[in-house]
Amino acid sequence: MPNPITHYDTLDISRSATPDQINFAYRRALEALAREGKDGTAEAANIRRAWETLANPLSRMSYDASLQKSEPAPRGTEDVLSGGADGLANAKLIKIGIGLVAVLISAFWMRQYAASKLPPKAVEVVAATKAAEATDPGSTPLGVLPRTPDEIYTDVTNSVAKVIVSDFNGNPVSTGSAVVIAPGILITNCHVVKDGRQIQVKFPKETFSASVQTRNEERDLCHLYAGNITARPVPVSSANTLKVGQKVYAIGSPQGLENTLSEGLVSALREVDGGKIIQTSAAVSPGSSGGGLFDTFGNLVGVVTFQARQGQNLNFALPADWIGNVPKVAGGPRIDFSAPAGTVNAEPAAPPEPVAGDYFPGKWTCTGEVEGMTGNWTVTRSSVEISLGDKSKKNSYALQSNNLMLFDPRGNVKLNVDEITDSKLAFSDFNGKKVSCTRR
């Protein structure tokens, strides 16, 4: 009888995986499902369930013990198991002994980790509190124990970038912030990048070119793609775990001052269509937009977005829940993100003028001289599928100014955008070969 699929198998990791490896594998698995259009499926639910179990040390310890109980007995116990009632009793004692050893080892390492993070007198109190909270896995943050501000800063600052936006001539037009949420992917505000043609993301030790991968203007959230970045993704948690009065930390580049940390409280959780906007007293300024708002466990709970022009210390962040699936809202009050210090505008804003990226999604028939680019194109906000006859291939893409980049595991394809309208597309490669498309 084959062994059942474990949570470790679901995330494709070993049983000795570290918490960072578990979180990375979780995001990698969700990203793969998103590319295949399998969001919201039973497979996605299984991945979420596996992560919730393994990301919490207490539930992981219990789960590991259950795996040991369910695994076949080692070869050395076959004779014991076949020895009648005495053999069965001995086998039970062996299994109990193995389980106790596993529990003691896990408890020892968990206690060692807690002792290294908190003053000795605080360890038992915090551990008992977290054990009580762990009865509801859905409410358990990714972090195991609360961290000090300097620990949070050390853990996540290398994953927060300064965003530099320039015009065609390379002249800077705006700056902001962004946070790495998946391999090669950052989250920022759309108002940070909307006026430029070139985007750079600057980390403490490296700078990379980036492009807008997906955008939602109504929610003011844009995903940036920068495939060569080495910074690891930050852990992400729901804003529903927050409570008014809880400490939070903003990290970004206010006024261009990179990697600035500020501390504040959750001042309020403001209900809007689709969730809650976080009001915080953590200090932010123009340039903080797109930066991260982190809880005391070091989890990203919000994306810093705007200040109210009237009043003091009225700062707001969009909930991290919107990062992966940002619902579009038709009509109703709209937040004015036209400036880094925006205000809540009670009047519905005029719809934005369409840009090239708005025309691109849809179904196209393409012909031309560039190999692999002819056939029927099906374009979504995150992928391009090209089919010809019984063959098809699906790539993620980035459309930035006059360039289209298709990301294929076998090699990237870069095309110049010659024309893009509601009914016609025209591209050319570096050899001048053409591709023309009409909407189906």
What does this entry look like structurally?
The chain has 440 residues and is of the alpha+beta class. The protein folds into three domains: 7-144, no CATH class; 146-352, Beta Barrel (Thrombin, subunit H), CATH 2.40.10.120; 356-439, Beta Barrel (Lipocalin), CATH 2.40.128. The protein has ten helices and 22 strands. The chain has helices at residues 7-11, 19-35, 42-54, 57-70, 78-81, 84-117, 120-133, 149-156, 190-193, 356-359, and strands at residues 160-166, 172-182, 185-188, 198-202, 207-216, 221-225, 247-252, 260-272, 275-280, 292-294, 300-307, 315-319, 334-335, 344-345, 362-368, 375-379, 383-388, 391-400, 403-407, 413-420, 424-428, 434-439. The strands form four sheets. It has an eight-stranded antiparallel beta barrel. The chain has a six-stranded antiparallel beta barrel with strand order 1-2-3-6-5-4. Strands 7-8-9-12-11-10 form a six-stranded antiparallel beta barrel. It is globular.
Outline type? globular
Distance between the termini: 51 Å
Number of helices: 10
Main sheet characteristics: 8 strands, antiparallel, barrel
